[in-house]
């Protein structure tokens, strides 16, 4: 089991990722990841829509738990292909939770989606995830035909992606935090891990 430190170095995070990758069978990209936990409230519509759009070599997990100094934190969906790892959180979540999950989960990126968008605008959400992480999705226009009926344009900002519908309104919004952009999450991470132990909690 991996030891948890409050102030991980880049070297420690790299070693942690290499260790977790070596524990999985490279011949079986869909082998269970450590800490897998199925959640009854998983975003079914988003999971179903993602499954149809993902590249065949991209593994998807639902309900991945990660041990952190503030407690166990869960990612609703985890996508992984060729060493690239992305987590998707559905519903309202504290920014501290996102930052801690990003670091201790050794994810390249964490996306946050509202529960309403995950349930009602799954096609638009998948379009945003594909725009941000094209290597995880099927190549070619055929994979995007369904989304084209919902999304007219994707607006990509520094930490937010928005899908514009054909009526000019926002169809969905996704917030992202990237491990290689520490300015996006360092403050929240430091606040979370420096809080007294009796006040830490994973939301």
Task: Give an account of the 3D structure.
The protein starts with 9 loop residues before the first helix and ends in a 9-residue tail after the last helix. Strands 1-2-3-4-7-6-5 form a seven-stranded mixed sheet. The protein is built from seven helices and seven strands; from the N terminus they run ααβββαβαααβββα. About 9% of the residues have low confidence. β3, α3 and β4 form a beta-alpha-beta unit. The longest helix is centred in the N-terminal third of the chain and has 14 residues. The chain is globular and about 50 Å long. By secondary structure, the chain is an alpha+beta fold. α2 crosses α5 and α3 crosses α7. It is 32% helix and 27% strand.
């Amino acid at each position: 089991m991996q030891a948890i430190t409050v102030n991980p170095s880049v070297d420690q995070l790299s070693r942690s990722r290499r260790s977790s990758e070596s524990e999985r069978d490279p011949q079986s990209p869909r082998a269970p990841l450590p800490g897998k936990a199925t959640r009854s409230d998983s975003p079914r519509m988003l999971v179903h829509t993602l499954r149809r759009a993902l590249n065949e070599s991209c593994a998807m997990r639902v309900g991945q738990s990660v041990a952190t100094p503030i407690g166990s934190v869960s990612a609703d969906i985890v996508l992984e292909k060729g060493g690239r790892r992305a987590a998707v959180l559905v519903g309202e979540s504290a920014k501290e939770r996102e930052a801690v999950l990003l670091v201790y989960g050794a994810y390249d990126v964490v996306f946050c989606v509202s529960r309403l968008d995950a349930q009602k605008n799954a096609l638009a959400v998948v379009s945003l995830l594909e725009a941000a992480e094209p290597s995880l999705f099927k190549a070619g226009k055929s994979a995007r035909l369904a989304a084209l009926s919902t999304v007219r344009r994707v607006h990509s900002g520094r930490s937010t992606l928005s899908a514009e519908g054909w009526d000019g309104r926002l169809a969905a919004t996704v917030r992202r935090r990237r491990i290689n952009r520490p300015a996006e999450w360092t403050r929240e991470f430091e606040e979370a891990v420096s809080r007294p132990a009796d006040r830490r909690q994973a939301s």
